[in-house]
Amino acid sequence: MAVADVASCVTPGSALDMEARLRGNSVYFPGLTLPMLPERLSGNLCSLLPGEDRSCLVFSLSYAADGLCTGFAVRRAVIRSVARVTYEEADSGCVPEEMTELAALLERQAERRVIMDLALPEPGLRLNAAGDVAEIVARPRTSARRMIELFMVEAGRMAGASLADRCADDVMFRCHAPPPLAQLRRLFRAVCPDAPRALSHRLDRRELLREVRRMAQSSPVAGHALWKILRPAEYSMTSGSHAGLALPVYTQVTSPIRRYADLLAHRSLTGQKAGKPDAALAQRLIRAERHAATAVREVISRAAGAFLLRENIQHEAIILESGRNQAEVMLLSCGLTGYCTVPPIVTGAKMSERETFRPPDQGAALYSLTDDHPQPRPPVSDQVLPAAEISHEQNRRKNGFPRAGTSVRVRPTETCGQVFPPEFHLIPE
Description:
Blueprint: E1 2-4, H1 15-23, E2 27-29, E3 32-34, H2 39-45, E4 53-63, E5 69-80, H3 87-94, H4 97-113, E6 123-127, E7 133-138, H5 143-165, E8 173-175, H6 181-191, H7 199-202, H8 205-216, H9 220-229, E9 234-236, H10 260-269, H11 279-311, E10 315-322, E11 326-331, E12 337-341, E13 355-357, E14 366-368, E15 375-376, H12 387-399, E16 407-412, E17 423-426
Parallel strand pairs: 12-17
Antiparallel strand pairs: 1-4, 2-3, 4-5, 6-7, 8-9, 10-11, 10-16, 11-12, 13-14, 14-15, 16-17
């Protein structure tokens, strides 16, 4: 595997290095990228462009017939790539058979390790020429994409093991704590209701994860519940296990253009003296990563909500988590998640001492009586419900929302594109 040799272009301690360290990672919004490195580097000099000579780090891994890695080496090289191939093009049949066979072996190994590959649908936005949202789609999970993921994990696994054996103190490892055992047992009992209750205490953590993940792969409700009890992965100056990948040690090495931690790993692997990073830097990179992920989710959610509101149609959804006054739902068409809440029920003419409605024959606009002359104001989401929905909402207040896993129909609220996560109305059956 050839990865851009960013360490050869970014001198430790330089202004460029300090700015990359401050940013921590690139941020990818729909139609906009905030790069960690200047565009001249990230999009040109450090990018493995077709037909151009570029410096790279080559990760050489040798495998036996059973998929066991028998050799690992890292060396600097110059590469001239032949073409840029998309995942869709790779899926059409241009991948060598040996790569496909190796990916299948690595997939079976990952299954035996019980990795937490939940495969939850992720919403993505397709923009038109004007930069507006044209469609919300679930990001495709192709076989070529999965193959590259497996290869990248292998590079990180072997690089992490090599650095740990060397007792390197200038690299950040990627660690991931396992889910709390008590929560895992409760989740097992929830997703396997027919199993004896005592079984959750007889199974060890690995066996519990295997059963819960098996259910999660076929049920978005179980997958979402498992995702919610997982702790986020973190950077650490000491080697530790990665529960999500079920590996004893792991570090990220495949994206030095967009992750500063990967750049540190490259410097350590090539013996470049760059000073020892500290725990404060690790915490800063963790915060930068989480802030970026939250910002991207919020932008996608708000833009998708505004698009749904313009469409103003009903959508098929499934309830992921249900309570008396709130339910989390996922749109089946694109994987976008949001909330349905119990709105106020207005059945009389008077709402409060300061607000009332126009007579029915003059419309249902809400007015404020704070002045001598009533002045109209914009209606607030769900302050007025159609008569057909009033009894439905009253029953919901009493009984709560339908249970998790129930298929429902929803429509966006008037504030769907203004709040994060988006809000939906539950359509009565």
